[in-house]
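dumping this here before i forget
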Amino acid sequence: MDGNGRWASMRGLPLLAGHRAGAEAVQRTVRAAISRGVGWITLYAFSSENWRRAPGEVADLTGLLRYYLRHKVAELSREGVCLRFIGDLARFPADIQEEARRAEAVTAGNTSLVLVLALSYGGRADIVQAATHLAQAVARGERVATDIDETAFAGALLTAGMPDPDLVVRTSGECRLSNFLLWQSAYAELVFLDTPWPDFDETHFDTVLNIYSRRERRFGARPV
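structure:
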């Protein structure tokens, strides 16, 4: 979800206004996904690298996250959204960690859409923690190293039990994955839009679905 800062700058607005507009785009996207029968969406809300940003911006982002966790979860739950979180949530203040756990518990039974928020998440760190977890299991005698395959490795990732993404969308003209779901996106279709994230709406959602529908997914094989 890229382009909040540039969107605000082009309008002569403070950076926080861009992040707030981006949060509104999230709400539009959730409604669009539900109405179109999309079952899973993962939003790269705060990367592990975002901690490098200016302290004021980090405070604004965490404050906005705190507000939405406290005041918008009930609305999401009424819409049938099940919330899940991936990433190093331990880096956030204790109250945000507690709000995230509460949000997962409150929405656990909902089935309209699974909304995964990647917070303090990095694809490389995810791979490293999975490798460490499996190595420790081997050291304890719980696993045999030669039995570790792609399925076992995927089961040790933070996304264990979640489907791999079929489609990865990045906004605001950036054309790279930026450390997002690196293992999981191995066969995802990639779509890059020039539109900044705060302007993303139902029309853009339909556009990326139409692009996806025209792609031929072969997973390394030849079409039959």
